[in-house]
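# step 3/5: fold
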Amino acid sequence: MTTTDAPMLAPRSTVRAKGRNIVAVASGKGGVGKTWFSITLAHALARAGQRVLLFDGDLGLANVDIQLGLMPKTDLGSVVAGRLTLNQALVSFPEGGFDIIAGRSGSGTLANIPLSRLQMLGDDMVVLAGNYDRVVVDLGAGVEKTTRNFSQQAGTIMVVTTDEPTSLTDAYAFIKVTHMERPGTDMRIVVNMANSTREGERIYNTLLKACEGFLKISPPLAGVIRRDLKVREAIRNQTPIMTRSPNAEAAADVEAIVQRLIRSK
């Protein structure tokens, strides 16, 4: 679904109560496959019959368009500069059956936008989300202000981690900060690049014990994505894995995550 009409903005006081259909994808650090998972999650949701928008919220290092081999004429840079509304920055991605709002690849300038403008951008995203069944937001890694602002708009946050100690430590840091700022947030853990489902569950339990021991919360396991060479091939060829290798193990794992997500709402 793509339109060029400017969205009708709701009063700021009511916007915060919305956004339950927004799924933010976060990670404590880079290199855990967060953007690949965001793309594949959006694709799987679209294949499940949902109207989906993929929003590149990594304002410091946007790369959704790069992984998909796109050269969009519009992006968030034009929105922040005031040349376009958020709605006018929509780009259709027919191959995946979903829409995209691209970031500005290769530019870190958007990461330094004023907090007031950032909050307005997040609020406008929530309003735009009313046109979709799901909005998937690829957040920047870490706990910077842009990441925290966009994550506060989301009804669900998927925190991606791997078995690397730094990945687990940084994932815990993200969960801790989010829990302190917004207690009761629906956070779910995604273990990526696991050698097996059982190993992924072990990795999850390590993170879960830390959350239960220090934060007194128990974020559930959204799913385990097994290590799959077809993921690297898809990224190298700038093609979604569900287009290039729809029967791949990693694709099936993401589809399982989507089915659980749909059933939980």
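# step 4/5: annotate
The radius of gyration is 17 Å.
# step 5/5: archive (pending)
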